[in-house]
Amino acid sequence: MFSFRGCGRWVAASLTKQHHPSSRFSGDSAAPWTPHFDVVVIGGGHAGTEAAAAAARCGSRTLLLTHRVDTIGQMSCNPSFGGIGKGHLMREVDALDGLCCRICDQSGVHYKVLNRRKGPAVWGLRAQIDRKLYKQNMQKEILNTPLLTVQEGAVEDLILTEPEPEHTGKYRVSGVVLVDGSTVYAESVVLTTGTFLRGMIVIGLEMHPAGRLGDQPSIGLAQTLEKLGFVVGRLKTGTPPRIAKESINFSILNKQTPDNPSIPFSFINETVWIKPEDQLPCYLTHTNPQVDEIVLENLHLNCHVKETTRGPRYCPSIESKVLRFPNRIHQVWLEPEGMDSDLIYPQGLSVTLPAELQEKMITCIRGLEKAKMIQPGYGVQYDYLDPRQITPSLETHLVQRLFFAGQINGTTGYEEAAAQGVIAGINASLRVRHKPPFVISRTEGYIGVLIDDLTTLGTNEPYRMFTSRAEFRLSLRPDNADSRLTFRGYKEAGCVSQQRYERATWMKSSLEEGISVLKSIEFSSSKWKNLIPEASISSGKSLPLRALDVLKYEEVDIELLAKAVPEPLKEYTKCRELAERLKIEATYESVLFHQQQEIKEVQRDEALQLPKDLDYLTLRDVSLSREVREKLHFSRPQTIGAASRIPGVTPAAIINLLRFVKTTQQRQAAVDRLPKTDQRLCNTDKLEDRQL
Amino acid sequence: MWRGLWTLVARAARGPRSPRPCTRQGSGAPAPGSGATIFALSSGQGRCGIAVIRTSGPASGQALRSLTAPRDLPPARKACLRLLSDPRSEEPLDHALVLWFPGPQSFTGEDCAEFYVHGGPAVVSGVLQALGSVPGLRPAEAGEFTRRAFAHGKLSLTEVEGLADLIHAETEAQRRQALRQLDGELSHLCRGWAETLTKALAHVEAYIDFGEDDNLEEGVLDQGGSAWGVGGGNIWHLSPQRPPYSLSFPPSTADSEVRELEVALGAHLRDARRGQRLRSGAHVVVAGPPNAGKSSLVNLLSRKPVSIVSPEPGTTRDVLETPVDLAGFPALLSDTAGLREGVGPVEQEGVRRAQKRLEQADLILAVLDASDLASASSCNFLDTVVIPAGAGSPNGSSQRLLLVLNKSDLLPAGGPDPSPDLPPHLLLSCLTGKGLDGFLEALRKELAALCGDPSTGPPLLTRARHQHHLQGCLDALGHYKQAKDLALAAEALRVARGHLTRITGGGGTEEILDIIFRDFCVGK
Q1: How far is CA B322 from its chain centroid?
Q2: Among positive and negative, which fits the CA dihedral A520, A524, A528, A531?
Q3: Contact B524 A315 (CB under 8 A)
C-alpha cells in the first residue's frame, strides 16, 4: 500500500456504503462534497496523472477515478523513463509544468543521457527508475495537488446529453456511471484507460481478461464506446519476465555505470536526488542459439505470436526477433527495478511462452544459469480507438467534452502517454472555461508531431516517438523546450507556475542577450587563432569571425571563449545551463536560420482554420472527389496545413478548400452585419486576418 | 510571402511527410520569412519572336541587377533596354527590354522583374540558367506565380476559380512530361539515387534513434551494411570507452554511399548539357578550306539558299547561322569562311571568326574537295582541324567531327578511293546529291550521340528544375561531409533527399522507418 506519510492535506472520508462504496481522497481540503466536478479523469496511469494534475493546475476542480489508489503512477512495463525522442517529450511535458520529469528526478537509480556524441538536438535523457519510489512520489504529488480529488472506482458507462449547438459532435458527455451504479457529473471527461479496454493477458496458450497482471479490464466502457460509433481497433504489446536479483551471476557480465554528474530531467532542478556513486549499475548479457531453439520448437504453444493483431515493429518480443532475424545473438539488458527491489528486469526478453518454458529459456542465458523467475512475461491485447476520431486538442469529434489520452489512442510508452495526458488535461479544463483549445503545432514540439501524426494519419501499430519523425528536429531540442512551450502554457493555458515562468523568462532573455553579445564580438581569424590556440580555426578566411562563429567549433565552449575575451563573456560562464545552451545555439545557428523560414511557412498554413462543422460528404460548391471527401470526413482536419498532410488529399482539393473558406468568410461577413450574432459566427472573425 | 501552403500543396501531391522543400543554403539567401524567389518562362515554349521571362520574390531586384549591365534598378514600371549578361561568366546573352515592378504593385504582389528577350531557345535557356545562378532564385513550380498572386490578394475570387484547374492541369502536364522524361534510364538513375540516399539516411537515423536506446544489434548490422563497425567516417566520434547502452556502429556505409552518390551526381551534372542542347539545338559548324563546297552543303541541309555559292574561293567571309532540323534534331548550322592564310584583312577576319566558331562547335562538318586533297590548304586543314579532333580529346571535350569529301562527281566513276590514308570519311556530291542518304544517316548518328537520343542513349536532363534539384542535392551532400554534429549531418541528408524526391516523388518518413525496421532488429 502507498504511504500516507507527509501527505497532511488529503481527506479520506468513509462514505455510505450503498451509494459510495469507494473512498475519496482530496488534496484540497476545501473541495466541495458533491459528485460534480469540472473535469473527471478516468485512469491513474501516466496519461491520467498528468491529465488530472494539468486540469487542476489550470484551475479546474478535478476528480481522478482509478481502480485502485495504490496503483496510481504504476510503471507497468519497463523500469525506466526517457530515451531518444521520448526524453524530448518529457522535457516538453516539464515545460508545461507536468509531473513526470520532477518525479523522475526524485526516483531514479541510474541516470544516463543517450546520444551524447551525436549532437545536442538528439540527446536523450534517460534513467532507470525505482518503481516503488516513482509510485510513492507520484501519489504524494497527486494527493497534494490543490483542486484534485482522487476516488477509487471502475467506470462502466458515460452519461450523455444533447450536444451544445455551437460545437460539432453528436452528443455531449456530462458525467460517468461507476460499476456500482453511482454517478459522478462532470463538465469534461478525460479517458486514459491504457490497455484496460477489453484487455486480455496472454501467456502461452492461456488467455484471460485483465488490464494488467492482477487488474480487471474495462469491458462495459469499451462496449459503450463501440456503441456510440467509435471505430475500435486492436493492438498488442508485451512485457518480459522478472528475475530474482540474487539468483543472477553478475560477476561474469558487462557492467554499465551511470553518468557522473547526473543530468536532471526537469528544467527547475539543478541536481537529482541521488549521488552518482550511490546509483545502481546495469548489466549486459546476450541470447544464444539455445534460446532460438526453445522459441522455434514451441511456437505451437504461443498464441500471442500467432495472432494477427499488430504489435510494434520496434519493441518486438524475443519470439519475433528470432523469427525475423534468425541466427543472431540479441542483447539482454539486466536493469534494476529499484533501490531495495530484489527484482531484475531483463530488457529485450519480452516473451509470451508458457511460464515453465520461459524459465527454461532464461537459464540458457549467460549469467542467468541459476536465475529464478519471479513473474513470467506476458502479452497484452487491448482495444484502441482510431485517433483520427479526435481533434488536436484530444477531444473526440463524436462526443463533445470527451477527451482521450494515452494508449487508448494507439500509442505506446509512458512518455507518449504523459505528453497526451498534459494536453488532454489542459484542454478539458479550457473547454469548461469556454477558452480556445491549446494545440501544439508540429513546428513547436514533439508533442505536436505526436498528436498531428495520430490525428491526421492514424496508426495501425503502437505509435512510439522517434526523433526521425520530427521534420524540424534541429529546432525542437530537449534544451529549448521551455522557450518553446512554457510561455504559451503560462499565458494560454494557465498550467505553469509563476516560479517556472519566471525562470524560463530569465533564461530566454539571458540567451537572447548572450547571442547578441556573441554576435557583436568580431576579430580576424588569425587573432582568434592566437586567442584560442586550442581551436582549429582556419586562418584563410579574410572576413572577420564573430565569437558566435568561433563557438561553433567543437572544441570551443563558453569557458574557453571567456578566457580569451573575459569582458563581457565572463558573465555567461556563471550559469552552467546558460553556458551549455549558448553553445548549442551556436552549433545550430546557421541551419536554424533556414529552418525558421520553413517553420514560418508551415505555421501560416496552420493558421488557416477550416470550419469545424463542415460536412465534407454533402458539401456543395466545392469540387472534391469522393475519396478526398471521405478522407476529410474521417480525419476532420482543423487547418489547411493538417488537411494537406492527409495522404490522398490533392493540391487541387486544397485550393478548392481554400476557396471555400474564402467564400464562407464573405458570406458570414454579410451575416455578421445583421444585428444578431452567435458564437459560431464569432469564430470565423479570425478569418479576417488571413489576407486571403 | 505565403509559400508554405504551396509547398504543402506540392507535398500533398507526393504523399505524407515528405521533407519540406529545400531552400538552397547559400550565403546570399533572402532573409527569413521572405520566401524564395521564383523564375520561369512566361510566354510559350518553343520558337517565338519575343519570349518573356518573369521573376517574383524578394530577390527579384537582385536578379535584375545581376543580369543587367548598369547595376542599378530601372525606374519602376518603365520599359528599359538593357544588355543581359551571365553574372558568372560576364558573357553577353541578349539585348532585352526589362521591367521592374516593386511589390506590392505587381502581378503577384511581390517584387517582380520581367525580361523581354529574343525568342531563340538558346537565348531563353541562357537567361534561365543565368537566373538560376543568382542566389535565392529557383525555378517556379506549376502555377506558382498565380498562386502567389492569389496568396497576396491580387486575384479576385472569380479569377481564382480556375486556379485549382490550372494547378491540376499544370501538375498533370508536368507529371506527363516528367513521366516521358523519367520513363527509362533517367527515372531509373534518379530512383536509384533516391533509394541509395534513403537507405543512407535510414541508417543514420537508425543510428541516432536506436543506436543507444534500443540495442541495434551488431550481428544484424552485418546484414544491413557491409562495413559496419569499421570506424573511419568523418563524423562519428568514438571515444575509447563505448557509451553504456550502446553498441556503436559507425555507419561508415552511409559515408561511402554518400561519397559514391556524390561522384555519380557530379558526373551526371557535368553531362547535363546534353539535355540543354536538345532544346536550344546542337551547334553544327561547317568548316574546311576555301571552295570545298561548305556553303553548298549548308544550302543543301537547310533546303534554302542561305549562303551565296560561287566557284570563287573565299566567297563566304562571315559566319552565317541558320536553325535547321537535322534528321529530327534541332540544330544551329553555321557556315564559315574557308580556312586559309595570306589573304586580305576582311577575309582574314572571316577566318578568325570561323576558327572561333570551330572552338564552340558541338559537331564539326569538315568539308574537303575530294578532287583537291593534295592542295596545301587541304593538307593544312587536315593537320590542324581533322587530325586533332580525330585523335580524340584528351581534355575531355565532347567535340565531334564528321569528315565529308565533297565533289565526288569530279572523281573518275568506279575509281579507287582517292584517300585511303584519311580518317573515316564520307563521299558526297552536293551537286548531284549522290551520297546524301549515307551522309544524313551518319549525321543523325552523330547528333543522336550528341543530344542523347532518348530512346537509345543516356537519359536527357532537359529541365532546369532537374538540374536545380540535382545541384541542390549535391550541395547538401557537401554539407553532410563537413558536418561535425550527427544531427546536422542527418539534416544535410534530409535536405539532399528532399531534392531528389522532388524529381522522383515519395520521400515520407514512413519509408525511412520501413528500412530501419527491415534492416535492423530494433527492440528491447
Answers
A1: 23
A2: negative
A3: yes
H/E element holding A588? Answer: helix A576-606
Query: Using CA atoms, how far apart are residues A71 and A94, in angstroms rounded to an integer?
Result: 22
What pLDDT does residue A233 have? Answer: 92
SS (H, E, C) A26-50: ECCCCCCCCCEEEEEEECCCHHHHH
* Grid cell for residue A246: 540474487
Distance CA A295, CA A299 (A): 6
Q: Is the pLDDT of residue A21 over 80?
A: no
Return d(Cα A197, Cα B237) in angstroms, integer: 46
Residues in A 227-266 with any Cβ partner in B closer than 8 A: 256-258
Q: Is A583 on the interface with B (CB under 8 A)?
A: no
Nearest to B164 among A115, A320, A656 (CB): A656
Q: Which three cell numbers stand for residue A177?
A: 456511471
Q: Do residues A82 and A464 touch, judged by C-beta distance below 8 A?
A: no
The values of phi and psi at residue A392, to 5°, are -60, -15
Q: From A642, which residue of chain B is nearest by alpha-carbon distance?
A: B8
The model's pTM is 0.73
**Inter-chain touch B491–A457, beta carbons under 8 Å:** no
Is the pLDDT at B318 greater than 90? The verdict is no
Decide: B400 and B409 in contact? Cβ < 8 Å.
Answer: no
Among partner residues B2, B9, B238, which is closest to A654 by beta-carbon distance?
A: B9
Condensed to tens digits (0 to 9), the pLDDT of residues B464-476 reads: 667 778 888 999 9
- pLDDT class of B31 with cuts at 50, 70, 90: very low
What does the alpha-carbon distance between residue B274 and residue B452 come to, in Å, rounded to a whole number?
6
Q: Which of B157, B170, B213, B237 would best serve as a mutation to test chain A binding (most A beta carbons within 10 A)?
A: B213
In this predicted model, what pLDDT tens digit does every residue of A140-156 receive, in sequence order? 999 999 999 999 999 99
What ipTM was reported for this prediction? Answer: 0.81
Report yes or no: A634 and A646 within 8 Å, Cβ to Cβ. Answer: no
Using 50, 70 and 90 to split pLDDT, how confident is the model at B508? low
Written as one string, the DSSP assignment of A549-579 is HHHTSTT--HHHHHHHSHHHHGGGGSSHHHH
